Amino acid sequence: MTSSRPVAGGPPRVHHPLFARFYARFSVSAETRGGIGALRAELLAGLAGRVVEVGAGNGLNFTHYPVGVTEVVAVEPEDRLRELAGKAARRAAVPVTVVPGTAGALPAPDGSFDAAVVSLVLCTVRDVPAALAELRRVLRPGGELRFFEHGAAGTPGLARVQRGLDRTVWPLLFGGCHTSRDPLAEIREAGFALGPYRSFDVPEGGPRLPSSPCVLGTARR
């Protein structure tokens, strides 16, 4: 069951109770068995200053933020995942504040962050251009976007499977996730200047799943 509705005096409420429980269990095991923890460390290496993280989930990025980060504002709309992120924030080596909000309406002033982080979240947002426009708005000029996302396959066979799943069961089963989006094109079209990035499969060397094709890199406002 999934719902999204306004809460009086606050942002829309996003509620994926079954997916949140599944994700909270699966994501923890994937940190080591799937190598995701090492990818999170690569994603966040060298960051400094104020950072906004959108779609923080259960807070698995938090332990990987380097000490040069002065504050992380972690935005998570889903109730259960935000509760878990709050617990993870207390174990982080840098200050982390977990807040409700959605990618399309970030609770922050213009130009208030040095960097922004999205990891495995652009697949789920309802309006990707609006979310990326919000990230550009809250970043200072020259601010950096760090991204780790899965997306469209480069092979015709898997790409057809992805499109078929996205039209049917995949978003319903996985909290609104879509497998056939193109995060690099979306980031470029939003006005960011792409920096270094690399493409790979997760798990590397393992079975190729609809969510396997990934990209990790940087862009600038």
Task: List strands and helices in order, with pairings.
Elements: E1 3-6, E2 12-15, H1 17-33, H2 36-44, E3 49-54, E4 69-75, H3 79-89, E5 96-99, E6 113-119, H4 128-138, E7 139-150, H5 156-167, H6 170-173, H7 183-189, E8 193-201, E9 213-220
Parallel strand pairs: 3-4, 3-6, 4-5, 6-7
Antiparallel strand pairs: 1-2, 7-9, 8-9
What is the number of strand segments?
Answer: 9
Task: State the assembly state of the protein chains.
Answer: single chain
Count the DSSP helices: 7
Spatial strand arrangement across the major sheet: 5-4-3-6-7-9-8
Q: Rg, please?
A: 16 Å
Which structural category do the helix and sheet elements fall into? alpha/beta
Q: Which architecture per CATH?
A: 3-Layer(aba) Sandwich
Task: Name the CATH superfamily assignment.
Answer: Vaccinia Virus protein VP39
Strand percentage, roughly? 25-35%
Q: Roughly how much helix do the residues carry, as a percent range?
A: 25-40%
Stretches with pLDDT under 50, minimum 5 residues: 1-11
Through-space gap between termini: 37 Å
Into how many domains do the coordinates divide?
1
Overall morphology: globular
Order of helices and strands: EEHHEEHEEHEHHHEE
The name of the CATH topology is Rossmann fold
